[in-house]
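Reopening this one. Same input as before:
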Amino acid sequence: MEHAPAWLLNSLIYLSAAVIAVPISKALGLGAIIGYLAAGIAIGPWGAGLVTNVEDILHFAEFGVVLMLFLVGLELEPRRLWSLRRSIFGWGAMQVLGCTALLMLVAMACGVGWRLSLVGALGLALSSTAIALQVMEERNQLPTPSGQAAFSILLFQDVAAIPILALLPLLGASSGQNSDLAPVEYAQAAIKTIAVIASIILGGRLLLRPLFRWIARSNTPEIFTAAALLLVVGISALMLLVGLSMALGAFLAGVLLADSEYRRELETDLEPFKGLLLGLFFIAVGMSIDFGVLRESPGAMALVVFGFLAVKGAVIYTLARHIQLPLAERPVFTLLLAQGGEFAFVVFQAAAGAHVFPAETASLLIGAVAVSMLLSPLVLVAVDRLLLPRFAGSGGTPLEEIAEQQDAPVIIAGFGRYGQIVGRIMLAEGISTTVLDHDAEMVEVARKLGYRVFYGDATRLDLLRISGAEQAKVLIVAVDDVEQSLAVVDLVRAHFPGLHIVARARDVTHWNQLRERGVTLVERELFESSLRSARSVLQLLGQPAHAARQTTMRFRQHNLALFEKMRPHFKDRSKLIATIKQGRQQLEEQMAQERADQEKRDTTRWVD
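Same output, byte for byte:
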C-alpha cells in the first residue's frame, strides 16, 4: 500500500480500531466511550504510533460535537429554550463561577501565581459536552431533572467560552503593548458577535424553511442531506470566523428549526454522521493524552487531576442539593460535570500562545483534562455498580421496606404502566394487593398518588416470602426487564409451586420463554390494543361495527392458535418461519372465503 492516499490509510486505522475496541468495551460493560478512548490510546503516539497528527484529527472530529449540539437544538423549540433561561444563566453561572473561584483559591494557596491560577481554573471549570450528552442520551436521562439541569449548565459553558477566550490576551505578558487598541478591537468584536448571532436568528426564521422547502421539491434525498450538512458547516464556519463557539451556533440553528416540518428528516439524515464523528472525537481525545508528561511528572499530574475533580465535584454536588435534584440522580450529575471538557484544550493552547504560562504547563493541564475524560466513564461504571444501588432507597421521602409479613391474595411485581392498570382494577374491586417495585422514583410517584407500594426486587426469595408468596393466590409479573421477569418466574416455580402466575410478555420471544416455563396466562402487552386499533380502522373504512368486531376477533383466535402451534418450534428459525407463512396464508384464504360467502348472501338477499 505504498501509494495509498493518507485519508485511506487513516480511515482503515480508525475504523479498525473502533470496530475492535468498542464491542470489547461494551461486552465488558464499560460502554462505547471507553472503547473509543482506548482505541485512540492504542493507535496514537504513545501506543502503536500509527497516527501522529493528533491536533488535525481533533479539530476535524470536533465537528461531531457540533452536529450533536445541532441535533439537541432540534429537540428544543424556542419557547422551551426561553423557559430554560433562568436555569441556563442561573445554575450555569453558579457552576462556572463557583468552580472557578474555588479552583483559583486552591491553586493560589499552593503557591501558584494568580494569572496561571485564574486561567487554569477557568479552563478546568468547563465540562465535556460530548461525553456528558452522549452518556445522558444512552441512559435516556436528558428528560429527567438532572438531565435538564446538566444540559442548561453545559449550554452556559458554551456561552462562557467566548469571554474566557477574550480575556486571555489581556492576561498575556505582551498585552500591554496594544493597550490603546484593545478597547477598539473588543468593541468591534462585540459588534461582530451580535451581528452574527442576529443574522443566524433572522436568517433561520426568514430563509431556512423556504430554502429546505425548495430543496425538498427536487425529490433528491442525497441533496437534502447535503443541504443539512451545508447548513451546519456554514454556521460553524461563520461562528469560527468571528471567534465564537461553533457548537453554540449549530445549537441556535437547531433551535430555529425545532418546530419546522423538516425536523425529523434532518435528525434522520444527520444522526449517522454525528455518531461516527463523535466516535472519531473520542478516539482523538485518547490519542491526545500526553503520556510523556504523565511519565515525567506523575505526581503533579495525579495532583492536578484528582485535585480539580474533587473541588469541582464538591461544588457541583452542593449545586445539585441547591437545585433539589433527586438524591439518586446526584452522583451521575456530579460526575458528568466534574470532568474536564474538550474546550479546555482550546483555552490552554490559546493561553500558551498568549504567554499567560509556558507550553509545558499547558501540556500538563491538557493532559490532566484528557485523563479526567478517560477516567469519567470508568468511574461511572463503578458508580452504577457500587454507589447507585445504595442511593436507590434514598430520597426526599424514605422508602417503605416490608418489615411485617403480608397476607394479600394478590402480589404485583412491577408497578409501571402495565402493573398500575391491573392494580387499580384490583383496588376498585376491594381486593388487597402487595405491590413490589425496584425503581425508587416509581415508588415515590406511586406513594404520592396514594398507592401502597414497597421498594424491593422481586427476584429475591426472602422478599417474596415476606410478601406472602406462600399464602397468596396470584402473582402478576409486570416488570419491564425480560430477564428479570423470567428470573421471577423461575424463582416462584421452584419455591412456590401453588402460586398462580399471570405474566406480561414484551414480545413473541418473551411469550415463548414464559410458556416454556409453564406459564399459561400470558398477555402480550400490545396485542389487545393493536386489535382495537385495527377494529377502528376497519370501521373508518366503512365496515359496520359488528363486522369489524368479528374480523378482529377471528384474527385474535387465529393468532392465539398459531402461537400455540409455533411454540414447539420457537428455537428452530426455519420451522418457525415456515409455520408463520403457512398460518398467514391460511388466515388470508379463510377470510377471503368468508368475504366471498358474505357477498353471495348479500346478493341473494337483494334478489329475493
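So the earlier flakiness isn't reproducible anymore. For the record, The chain is about 70% helix and 5% strand.
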